[in-house]
Every structure is written in structure tokens, then in C-alpha cells.
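[job 4471] stage=fold_predict status=RUNNING
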Amino acid sequence: MLSQFRPEPGSSWSCLAEFIRWPGVYAAGRLDADSEGLLLLTDQGQLQHRLTDPTWGHWRFYQAQVEGWAREEDLQPLRDGLMIQNKRTLPAQARTIPPPQLAERDPPIRQRLNVPTSWLELGLQEGRNRQVRRMTAAVGLPTLRLVRVAIDLMDQGPPLTLADLAPGQWRQANTNEQDRLNALLGSERRFNRSRR
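[job 4471] inference complete, writing C-alpha cells
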């Protein structure tokens, strides 16, 4: 499905409005139609803005299955920042990881029997359109599967993660997470006052 609440004309993809019937709910960030994973939903527009505005630099962490063997020299340009769409990306975190334990993807990814794949963990502080896919393609490692696994609130606490949620499952933020999310709004108000 598309991680938005309005269907796109002519698209065969469903959207969040088909599953979430509460008015005034926003997605704090987007996943493209070919991606999967953690999506934070909120009924607070200020919180949605706070989590998606690149000014705040919230790290988002992804696991990406890429085509080819990922070598250290392939990952360094991701860490340094590279040009995509005529603009340099912010430096990313990038490392190889063993294949994670994930549910089968539906529909499955395309795979070529004679082409090896690698898994990467990537951390980004910005969220440009299809950014992970463009970055890995730029270093010769096209992304086959992309899963957002965590969002760092940048408050010294642990990142919000998928934990044990299966595909299609959701849960409400627990009391501690809700307190942390509400505290972000207070820090944004203090920051905006100091900029005046």
C-alpha cells in the first residue's frame, strides 16, 4: 500500500485510508510503494512535522538487500555523502550485516539466480524521495528489498523499532514512548523561540 491517506489517481496501490478510519491522522514520514517497515502515525501535525523536518536530523535506520557483494570501498561513498539528483546527500551510516530474519515479502523481490546479494544496515538523517535506492544504485548495489527498522527520537533514549511486529500489525505507543514523543514538541517550541 501507499503510506499516505489519499489514493493516487490511476494507481493500483491501496492507501492507508482503507485501513485507518480515524480522521486527522498523519504518517510521520513515508515509505515508497516497494518498501516496508516502521511507519509512525500521529494525530498531532506538529509531531509529524518535528519527526520529518530534516532540521532535526532524526536518524532512520534501514535494512537493505542489495544486488552484488557489498565491499568496504562500496560503502565509503555512502558514509561520505554522494551526489544524487544534483544534490549531495548527508553522510550516512553504512555497514554490511548478516541476512536478517524477516517475513517473506509479498510480492517477492525479483532475484537472479547467478547474481549474489548482500544485506546492509543504513542510517540516514534525511528522507529524500527513494533516497536509499538511489544511493545504493549510485555505488553499483541496486536495492532489492528495503525495510525501515527504527527511528531515533534523538532524545538519548532507545530508537523506536519494529520490535516483534509482523507485517501488517500495528500497536499504540506505550506510555514511555508517548511521553518521549510529547517531550519532542516541547523541545521544538523552545528551539523556535530561541531562533526569533
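[job 4471] summary: The radius of gyration is 18 Å.
[job 4471] exit 0
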